[in-house]
Here is the input.
Amino acid sequence: MLRFEEALSLVLELGSRGPKGAAPAEAVGDTIELEDAPGRVLFESLTATADLPGFDHSSMDGYAIRVADFEASAPRLAFPVQGESRTGAVPAALGPHATMRIFTGAAVPAGADAVVMQEHVARDGAYAQFRTVPRRGQHIRHKGDDLAAGVVAIASGTRLRPAHLALAASLDRPSLTVARRPKVAILATGDELRRPGTAAINGTIPESNTIAIRAMARHAGAEANVYPYVRDDRSATERAFAEALEESDVLVTLGGVSVGDHDLVRPALEAVGVHLEFWRVAMKPGKPLAIGTFARAGRRDALVIGLPGNPASAMVTFALFGVPLLRAMQGDENPFPSFARARMAHAYAREPGRREFVRAVVTQGREGWSATTLGNQSSGALTTMAQANALVSVPESTACISEGDEVDVLLMSDLGA
Here is the structure.
């Protein structure tokens, strides 16, 4: 049974190997419009083809001036106003011993080397009276201050946030080349499953895992499809797995991954040719977790994630392994989020032996983050999954965490959960 860190390292390695055995078409990115790019991973670095900003402009409403004119005419601080510079137009050059009205974002006229904000200028008809002597470069955003032409603006492997899209738009790029979406097949197993809203027959339960896992996979940038439920039949399970493995880059199974008499997932996967890298992790919740590979001729290998069937276990294990795997497959440079630090709001005791990820609510206080663990930590408890905004990481050997102790936490928002 692998430790959590060992299992995660192996999963990230599998995801970052690249399109092993891929056809040429699978080894390139997709060019998409900026509006469709949030959450996608940049495939090709974006290099600035022009300076940003593209011209010197004012950061204030005020008056453009030549500082040397103050020095030449001291102590005189009044200058005739020579027109104005508005946004969207190129102003005339500023003549000697004159000033020009200028507005925020407008081009600085040739000859000017400072802008004085209007609050520091008194207008008297055709003249402007300056209360202070400006310094060169004051309130001017110079060409190339933000980014010089030829510099990489956004590196490949960056998961695109709204600010990245704004930067690309500022560089006059209407589209970006992003990593292709991994295709994910989600397949739940079990005789007891039924669709939410269908007839409630005794012994059945409304199935909830596929809804959550599909949403998380899509949030991680994947194209995710839910397949029909597979009943507890060995032949039917093998057929469903074989079909999904041919059609998708990643097969996610739900339930049946343990060692019970009706847990058919592991033997069915092995029967169709899946090589299991591991199938148990020393963690709670989610010990029965399977990771495997499936070789396909002329195409990239398919990967398999076998999740436990209990809802909390399924969501936590997919957040900790499935989401980072999908991000790594897209070339994301940071597929696994960084741990934050928080102080425990109260003590937490448990049986040591496995790394535990405890559902908690993290809040910001005067002294930093505070973590309050939630009551029902059962692997089947969806209520605390819905209430939690973080997971507190408890090391294998730790039996008790005292109130006020610092702990590592993972935010649900960073995990896509």
The chain has a mean pLDDT of 92.
